[in-house]
């Protein structure tokens, strides 16, 4: 999307700006031509949002189910995974969240592109300025996409793991802190991990003055270890 928009804008900017008629409105001319391109990319992202989200939910549930089964078997508990109504609700909610977030990425980027073009035209900026600004906005959008992907993976993994455990009778977990390679983390989560805080999977852990689940807060990489009855 970024390559397409950048290529088209540079070509159109060079072609249109020097020869726009005196009675024409440059901002309107560029906006009209840009509108079609932006619509096409919104449609492509909308289509891929559903495809990608569906794949994400299926693959995450498959990986989590395998991990939970292995962990419980290792602890001496033989289980068979069941798709409970609660799990189905989590999977459906995860799907809808992914669709919305993926769609939000191009919306934010394309809105910024539109504003940049209008500013470039109205203030007589040259193509070099527009190119630099587009590249900067792309960097912001890319970093946001990476953050969303990592954050949502943590949330989905833990939410599915919780329901998979509860479905087979495991209702408690031990908080495990993971920085995920991040240089910033919550000290209260570190303490919970060090203390091996046990909590009710149906309720969450009381940390930092609130009830939360591992991976629930933004950029939280924490997980939990299931407490198998009779094997804790």
How would you sum up this structure, described in words?
The protein has 232 residues and is mainly alpha-helical. Helices cover 65% and strands 8% of the residues. The chain contains five helices and five strands, in the order ααααβαββββ. The strands form two sheets. It has a three-stranded antiparallel beta sheet. A two-stranded antiparallel sheet has the order 3-4. α2 runs parallel beside α4.
The total of helices stands at 5
| Class inferred from helices and paired strands | mainly alpha
The helical percent reads: 55-70%
Largest sheet: 3 strands, antiparallel
What is the mean pLDDT?
86
Order of helices and strands: HHHHEHEEEE
The span between the termini is 51 Å
Strand-residue fraction? 5-15%
Contiguous low-pLDDT stretches (5 residues minimum) are none
> Which strand order spans the largest sheet, edge to edge or round the barrel?
2-1-5
Radius of gyration over all CA atoms, rounded: 24 Å
Q: Say how many strands there are.
A: 5
Tertiary shape = elongated
Keywords:
single chain, 232 residues, mainly alpha, two-stranded antiparallel sheet
How does the SSE layout of this entry go?
Blueprint lengths: L1 H15 L9 H49 L10 H38 L4 H41 L4 E5 L10 H8 L3 E3 L4 E3 L2 E3 L10 E5 L5
Antiparallel strand pairs: 1-2, 1-5, 3-4
């Amino acid at each position: 999307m970024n390559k397409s928009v950048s290529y088209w804008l540079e070509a159109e900017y060079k072609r249109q700006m020097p020869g726009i008629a005196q009675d024409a409105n440059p901002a309107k001319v560029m906006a009209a031509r840009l509108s079609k391109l932006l619509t096409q990319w919104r449609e492509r992202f909308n289509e891929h949002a559903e495809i990608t989200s569906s794949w994400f939910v299926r693959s995450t549930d498959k990986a989590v189910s395998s991990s939970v089964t292995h962990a419980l078997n290792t602890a001496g508990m033989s289980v068979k995974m069941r798709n409970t109504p609660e799990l189905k609700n989590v999977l459906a909610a995860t799907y809808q969240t992914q669709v919305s977030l993926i769609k939000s990425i191009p919306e934010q980027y394309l809105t910024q592109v539109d504003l940049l073009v209008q500013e470039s035209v109205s203030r007589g900026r040259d193509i070099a300025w527009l190119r630099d600004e587009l590249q900067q906005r792309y960097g912001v959008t890319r970093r946001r996409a990476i953050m969303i992907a990592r954050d949502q993976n943590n949330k989905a993994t833990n939410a599915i793991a919780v329901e998979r455990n509860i479905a087979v009778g495991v209702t408690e977990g031990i908080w495990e802190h993971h920085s995920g390679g991040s240089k910033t983390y919550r000290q209260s989560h570190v303490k919970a991990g060090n203390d091996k805080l046990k909590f009710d999977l149906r309720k969450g852990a009381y940390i930092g003055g609130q009830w939360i689940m591992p991976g629930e807060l933004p950029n939280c990489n924490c997980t939990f270890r299931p407490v198998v009855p009779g094997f804790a």
